[in-house]
Design a protein that fits this description.
It is a single chain. 37% of the residues lie in helices and 17% in strands. It is α/β, with parallel strands linked by helices. The protein has a domain of 189 residues: Alpha/Beta hydrolase fold, catalytic domain (Rossmann fold, 3-Layer(aba) Sandwich). Strands 1-2-4-3-5-6-7-8 form an eight-stranded mixed sheet, with helices on both faces. The protein is globular. The two termini are 35 Å apart. GO terms for molecular function: hydrolase activity. This is Pimeloyl-ACP methyl ester carboxylesterase. Keywords: Hydrolase. It holds the Pfam family Abhydrolase_1.
Length: 271
Amino acid sequence: MSSDSGLRTLAPRTSLLPTRDGALEYLVTGSGSPTTVFGHGLAGSIATTRPFGSSVAGSRAFFHFRGHGASSSPETPWTYAALAGELRAVADHVEASRALGVSMGAGALSHLLGETPDRFERLVFVIPAVLDTPRTDAALDRLIRMGELAQDRDVDAVAELMLEEQPAAMRDRPEVRGWCHDQAATIVRTDVSRALRSIPHEVALADRSVLRGVTAPALILAQQDDPAHPVWVAEELARLLPHARLEVLPPGGILWSHRPLVRSLIGEFLA
């Protein structure tokens, strides 16, 4: 047994991609072609997005949007147009031909496709939250409150709000509570609070009809009883994209309760 074996886990070695608005932290795993780029959700991270790529063939490029991880926090407006520009910068750098977006990342992907419908050959949208209609739901209020608490550096209060977003049946599980606390600590430590105060007010597209020009096959994953990611958004996305397949999973947390199924669906689609 080596001195390191089983004793500690080394952090993955990330790189920084310079852009006009600052550096973007990214990580490439796997090898060869094709390459898939992954965009995380609001207050997400490279670590929380990697499970979606565990069964994906080829190279996998994960990155942090502005204000997350070690990426820069530019003074330019925090909009889906800006997020789409960051997604495009990483995708172009790693020559990605396929893309997966989670929640906010799905919105960034939608915006990018509105500008360049043929940029990718295959697409995966995981729990999309918004198209061209401003949000006015309780989930919006919770995100704004989380941004205020993050600005006050209140880790425990942010963790409690994150716990409220988890399925009721999962909230007492130690791993769920631990995950929420770790995520809250990350949010408070970085500039995610700026994203929480701005992005929830934004829409991904000015006109959802532009997505009708996308010809790439798309897989859309949604889940029932998720107020932050209403199923109707996923259904509308599936109606707009000409070659879309929609999978609506039961309640319970898309990765807490359905991780093997999610991995299988994405792995088969991005084989």
